[in-house]
Amino acid sequence: MILDPLGKLRDKIDDVDQQLVDLLAQRIALVAEVGEIKSEHGLPIYVPERETAMLEKRREEAESKGVPGDLIEDVLRRVMRESYASEKDSGFKTVKPELGRVVVIGGAGKLGMLFVRMFRLSGYQVDILEQGDWDKADALFANAGLVVVSVPINLTETIIAKLGRLPKDCVLADITSIKNKPLQAMLTAHEGPVVGLHPMFGPDVGNLAKQVIVCCDGRGKAQYQWLLEQMQIWGARIYDVDAKQHDEAMTLIQALRHFTTFVYGAHLAEENPDIQQLLDLSSPIYRLELAMVGRLFAQDPTLYADIILASDNNIAMIRRYAERFMQAADMLERKDKAGFINSFETVSDWFGDYSTQFLQESRNLLLQANDNRQFFGVES
Predict the structure, then answer these.
(1) What is the pLDDT of residues 174-187, one digit of tens each?
(2) Are 14 and 22 in contact, with CB atoms under 8 Å apart?
């Protein structure tokens, strides 16, 4: 009779895993109660001070019992991410209950739908205005306390120009990824409070906990302050910045990054490698990079074309990048190893301490990417 030397130990591990599942179920139930209280009292779903203090305490407790602090932090961060998603189901306090109706222009689009849902979860009466509904526009605007423009970049200024007269105390906002031109258009079109917003996330986020929303002041900050507070209750972090500075940063953060991803994807398509083989042979970092490239091509090409083509500054930045790329390629053709090392060190000095920070952050991401990797079949 052959005995399984691991059988009993595996049974015990299964028992412990079942206890973990039971404990997680208890925690989720408690989080639901927390969500109801936060909703009742208008408390944000994400409180950074509470999260930091809790994680520090759990790390200390774990390490005192021989459990790695990083392990318990990884587990708890994943649990908390699920908790934030659960808390939003309880709804949110209405910061400005006396507000008129919220009108979201383009509210049937993916990002518009996200904000429609968040406003409705917060107790506001929300109307959606689409291209075929403009005969209703004046009636909807007459009772509006907030009008949000959520349309493609190339249509934003045109839509703002045709808004007509809004109530003087109505807040006019847009959620476009460029800010200066739309903000100026809103200031021209409306004499009341105006704010430019840029959600730094896509419509597929499960909740707004820890998500950044850029805020570019237009006019009447005291009158739209309630909107910022409402978004903070949703869990968002508000980042105030000048509209021109925002657009300059987006040239690098969005336009250049999306373009280089597009070009790399186009290069792969022309080279036509076996994608599955690339995945099988990849290191965690390449797998993550390939996933980010593939992610782009699973989305709407019009959106990315509009982002890249939104500004002549974007094109100029891409041209400068292309020139530097070719300069680096020429250096390699000359087999100038010393020049490569010198250039590498110059860039390293520019990054400074951020290099170490990014190294640690990337390690965590790579560990997660490797954890998600699955192998099937027999390996030689």
Answers:
(1) 999 999 999 999 99
(2) no
